[in-house]
Write a structure and sequence with these properties.
Elements (H helix, E strand, L loop, with lengths): L1 E14 L2 E7 L1 H6 L5 E4 L11 E4 L2 E3 L2 E7 L3 H7 L6 E8 L11 E7 L3 H13 L3 E8 L16 E6 L6 E2 L6 H6 L3 E5 L2 H9 L1 H5 L4 E4 L15 E4 L2 E4 H4 L2 E3 L10
Parallel strand pairs: 8-9, 8-12, 9-10, 10-11, 12-13
Antiparallel strand pairs: 1-2, 1-7, 2-6, 3-4, 3-7, 5-6, 13-16, 14-15
Bound molecules: flavin-adenine dinucleotide.
Length: 257
């Protein structure tokens, strides 16, 4: 794990309210694994003392790519940063996704901006010779990652709430048919989506291994502040350092907000 002043290579709005950021960091690009994240200082010197967690969306030779939504003060501040400026970044942090060596067919399920870390996982899994189906849900077609940003060879299916692309409805409706042929499942999305999937875990996945990346409020990213503590079958865990990826069946979902 490193703390670096990284230089912004580019920072552009690629979908309405969603930004693609490239930063230079040779060491972080070498150390990163899918499902890990970085903590970014947004606007040092103001009331936003706490860093904001953002998943690693991709790596390239010499740096990291992030995909983030401008939802509040911190991420909106970030969206206004220009190439050439420096960002104070801590990472890579946390335990990411673990692909079972014997799993051949992977199902990745994304809700909204939850697609960010799953594209990195898809790329690495395809390189390792796995078959990857990515099922992504969004409110409208313009909130879906364009196919040009996906790795070649991926099987991509979409659901939109207004029916402007793919299946009309929630992404969870696409799970039963796609889960049937998967050996292992990986999910990232908003908490209501994760809870809905967890509630139907047994019927949707018939006890297949399912990993979820949890997006909870975090303070430090280092396991010091306990702000992100959750309850699991193995006792209390901190999402920032024990996660953010957990086995779905281990999480005590009823206690999560
Ligand atoms: C491990 C991890 C990885 C993440 N990866 C990404 C990513 O790749 N791309 C991305 O766009 N976002 C990601 N997030 C969510 C991101 O951290 C929050 O959107 C961000 O911290 C909001 O900060 P803000 O100052 O802009 O908003 P705030 O002013 O702090 O909050 C604005 C709104 O965002 C909500 N919010 C704040 N923090 C979170 C959070 N941690 N999770 C969900 N909602 C939150 C608040 O409830 C509020 O409604 C990730 C979160 C975690 C924990």
């Amino acid at each position: 794990m490193n703390q670096e002043l990284t230089q912004i290579i580019s920072n552009r709005e690629v979908m309405p309210g969603i930004f693609h950021l490239k930063v230079a960091s040779s060491q972080m690009s070498l150390d990163a694994r899918p499902g890990q994240y970085v903590m970014i200082t947004c606007d040092r010197g103001t009331e936003r003392l706490l860093r904001r967690p953002i998943s690693i969306h991709r790596t390239f030779d010499g740096g990291l790519e992030l995909l983030y939504a401008g939802v509040g003060g911190g991420t909106q501040w970030l969206s206004q940063r220009q190439s050439g400026e420096n960002l104070d970044i801590l990472g890579p942090l946390g335990h990411g996704f673990q692909v079972n060596p014997t799993a051949k067919n992977l199902l990745l399920v994304a809700g909204g901006i939850g697609i960010a870390p799953l594209i990195y996982l898809a790329e690495e899994a395809l390189k390792a010779g796995k078959n990857v189906t990515l099922v992504a849900g969004a409110r409208t077609a313009d909130q879906l990652v364009p196919t040009s940003r996906l790795p070649p060879g991926i099987d991509f299916k979409v659901a939109t709430e207004d029916g402007s692309a793919g299946y009309k409805g929630l992404v969870t409706a696409l799970l039963p048919e796609n889960a049937a042929k998967a050996d292992q499942v990986f999910i990232c999305g908003p908490m209501p989506m994760l809870k809905a999937i967890a509630a139907n875990y047994a019927s949707s996945f018939t006890d297949k291994p399912v990993q979820v990346s949890l997006e909870v409020r975090m303070g430090c990213g280092l396991g010091f502040c306990y702000a992100c503590t959750i309850n699991t079958a193995q006792g209390l865990k901190q999402v920032c350092k024990d996660g953010p990826v957990f086995e779905m069946s281990d999480v005590v979902w009823g206690e999560l907000k």
